[in-house]
Amino acid sequence: MSTLIRFGISLDKTLLESFDSLISDRGYTNRSEALRDLIRDELVRREWLSGDVVAGTITLVYDHHTRELNARLTEIQHNHHNVIIATQHIHLDHHNCLEVIVVQGTPKDIEKLASRLKAARGVKHSSLTMATTGKNLL
Q1: Average pLDDT over residues 8-33
Q2: Is CATH 1.10.1220 the classification given to domain 13-50?
Q3: H/E/C letters for each residue in the chain?
Q4: Which of these CATH numbers, 3.40.1080.10, 3.40.109.10, 3.30.70.1150, 3.90.470.20, describes 54-131?
């Protein structure tokens, strides 16, 4: 179990008021929780820069009627099976699908997969969300 340490910081009044407004909008009950989340976000970003094993999601929106797109996306995913943990496919409407791909591996391998998927003709939107395996965070 970790030890809780209190510390003080100095901020410009306007910056603190903006921060308080932000944390209120996001539903935080206090500044400490908001600061902890900001610190964790930066630590996850550092994990990605370090090249160690990380986790994340790749989200795609695409027109499944685009010729050979389904086959191309499947081929790309098979070629990167070592970083894919799971996928979920959702039919948004008659033309559009949303696919969420859960990944774990090195940032280099994950970013390569995300780039190849995004570049496939017919993909309307793609985003990579960085996450962590949680091993290095408290």
Answers
A1: 94
A2: yes
A3: CCCCCCCCCCCCHHHHHHHHHHHHHCCCCCHHHHHHHHHHHHHHHHHHHHCCCEEEEEEEEEECCCCCHHHHHHHHHHHCCCCEEEEEEEECCCCEEEEEEEEEECHHHHHHHHHHHHHCCCEEEEEEEEECCCCCCC
A4: 3.30.70.1150
| 77-118 pLDDT tens trace | 999 999 999 999 999 999 999 999 999 999 999 999 999 999
> Which amino acid, residue 41?
D
